[in-house]
Amino acid sequence: MERRKSLEQEIVPRKEQPRRETVSIAIGERKLPRFHCCKGKFRLFGHYVHAQFLLLLAVEFLAVAAGSHLALKLATPLLYGRSVPLLLSETLLATAVLLSGMIAVGLYDTRQREQFSGIAFRIATAFLLSTAALWVIYQVYSNNLWDLRRHLVFAASAFSILVLTRILFYRFVDGRVLLRRTLVLGTGKRASHIDRLRRKADKRGFQLVGYVAPRSCEAIHVDTAKIVNTGKGFCDFSLANEVDEIVIAVDDRRQKLPIDELLDCRMSGIEITDAIDFFERERALIHLDLVQPGWLMHAEGFRRNLLRDLAKRSFDILVSSTLLLFSSPISLLTALAIYLEDRGKGSIFYHQERIGLNGVPFQVIKFRSMRPDAEADGQARWAQKEDPRVTRVGAFIRKYRIDEIPQLWNVLRGDMSLVGPRPERPQFVEHLIGVNPLYRERHRVKPGLTGWAQLSYPYGSSDEDAMQKLQYDLYYIKNSSLFFDLLILMQTVEVVLFRKGAR
């Protein structure tokens, strides 16, 4: 009888039982954490990619390949009067080239904020790029040419499919699925950086559950409406609310953290993330206001790898040689335009001292885009918007980055790489190191013709701009890989075509 009474007490609903003093709870009473391996953003070959856009890429590839292949099979008798089988490999190649063009114009970039009309325009631009690329590929490698009529059928079907998938994606998927549910421990200044994330592009990877005030007294700098009370069961609250990760964002780490609770959460499958790692993942930068020397010493990355350096150098030589060859007609026309504008009085090329690997200076080569007397007084100046020193030809070649083509010689010589932090003048470097000593860390790698900061931030002309770009440069140095370099080179097409950051 007593045994039965004991069993009846055990099955009393939990809300009717007195609260336990400890947080230890039987496994059977807990709600298991959700699967969160591929939610939000996750690391792929060193760089963070977004699960939603990776899913979109996979769906669009399969849909375009299958849909266009079916359309071509149906349209072939009408075009040729007989059944002409289309190899699946041709359709897959055309689809891969098309989606590569879409990557190049930023259609899988989580930071893009275009309206749907702008997205449709970029899809059309990707079609033009892929058409040119396919024509070259089939002229060189194929006897069975991808003729114009066949390509028109492919383009019509693929465009329709892409527009439809984009409409469905932005209506039902974007910002709604595959999100990390995030709980922030802290309500002070460090936590306020998360609270200030307002743009959809910055919040695509996570859903904020709320802020938890630490046990120590901490000034409140976040929206008080977002502060949650977890009670004594911090881990119970996290599991009950399906939290995927807890971000540590307390201002004073010397104060006592709820270590037992955090360990309980960690062992229950919930990720524990530092605020600086959170920003590195969500915004692809190293937040200078949060970084500490201890984090730099222990963080993954910032490592030299001989095999990776050799692969990067080989890649630089191969690509820069190819680009020099294909850009030679543009270079000749640019040189002629500069010569005619100044009637042969000024030099065509411009040499300027910049700081390279390990702080060693070198002479960078560019097409001259300013008047010969632009710095007659010897004073180094940032280039400004609508700078009066820029010539008419110079304004055009700067807008489309044509003035950068001669720097491919610097890449061949080994002074620069194709991808890396942009090299700065010694006067600016000395000054900016005084603003923030971390600026010297940019010189741990070779400067680049293009870089992550150039894709992520507009043209800079002030100390504040330089510090903003430094955050992206440090992210690149920490996470550099050949995959990341290739991705940056592809997305540089968007910078050139849409004149992002040109000045």
Please list the strands of the largest sheet in the order they lie side by side. 4-3-5-6
Structure class: alpha/beta
**What is the 3D form?**
globular
Q: What is the share of helical residues? A: 40-55%
What portion of the residues fall into strands of 2 or more residues? 5-15%
Poorly predicted regions are: 1-28
Query: Termini, distance in Å?
Result: 87 Å
**What oligomeric state do these chains adopt?**
single chain
> For the residues shown, what is the average pLDDT?
84
Our Rg estimate from Cα atoms comes to: 28 Å
What's the helix-strand series?
HEEHHHHEHEHEHEHHHHEEHHEHEHHH
Number of domains: 3
Largest sheet, if any? 4 strands, parallel
Total beta strands? 10
DSSP summary: helix tally: 18
